[in-house]
């Protein structure tokens, strides 16, 4: 059974440690959260897993095969899908064209196969009524559904979701929660990070809490609510206090500064 695993990932920018020994693993058919306050290193960890950033040390393994030095497109060929925080749909293409563009890049599919797969994805993601709408006319939630359909078109083994609920209204968030949760039935492993923590916890099986570039604890959502280490490093009871309600996991809404460091490095 394939497992996606990060083993001791380390990354520093300009002498400043951003990620220091992060180790996580995702199994097929489970949803795993990577959560923490602003600047914790979540985004940089995601970038290293998906191949956007090369770690200074540590490894990324897929089914015990070292893929640390593979570029992003080769990781995609091996079954790692990625949904970026930024919208990635082609605005002037229709919903159907956006999905078909990905299907046409998949090897071994006939025209009939692509058409059948397109219809399946449109139905599954509830996009049938919008199939001929240009993406620029879609709501935030509809764009996210198109992006998920595009990822699913590659038949991934694992999907990394970076802030999937950002820019989406509360009702659409519920729809996306249901869609992501249903991916378990396909045996797809999911790693998700999002500042909408309540929404994330409702669909995760396990969660890692990261603080200042290190994994401090992990467990089920129910366990973490009562976990003193999670409270110390994330809920605001200790040095990371931001005046939050200790009964709920609510991080600050600022962006992870790993993105800023990545932009500077690039």
From TrEMBL:
Annotated Gene Ontology cellular component terms: ATP-binding cassette (ABC) transporter complex
Gene3D superfamilies per record: P-loop containing nucleotide triphosphate hydrolases
Key words, A-Z: ATP-binding, Nucleotide-binding, Transport
InterPro entries: AAA+_ATPase, ABC_AA/LPS_Transport, ABC_transporter-like_ATP-bd, ABC_transporter-like_CS, LPS_export_LptB, P-loop_NTPase
PROSITE patterns: ABC_TRANSPORTER_1, ABC_TRANSPORTER_2
Residue span of region Disordered: 235-266
Classification via CDD domains: ABC_YhbG (cd03218)
Molecular-function annotations in GO: ATP binding; ATP hydrolysis activity
GO terms, biological process: transmembrane transport
Keyword Repressor (UniProt): no
PANTHER family: CONSERVED COMPONENT OF ABC TRANSPORTER FOR NATURAL AMINO ACIDS-RELATED, LIPOPOLYSACCHARIDE EXPORT SYSTEM ATP-BINDING PROTEIN LPTB
Name this protein carries in UniProt: ABC transporter ATP-binding protein
Gene that encodes the chain: lptB
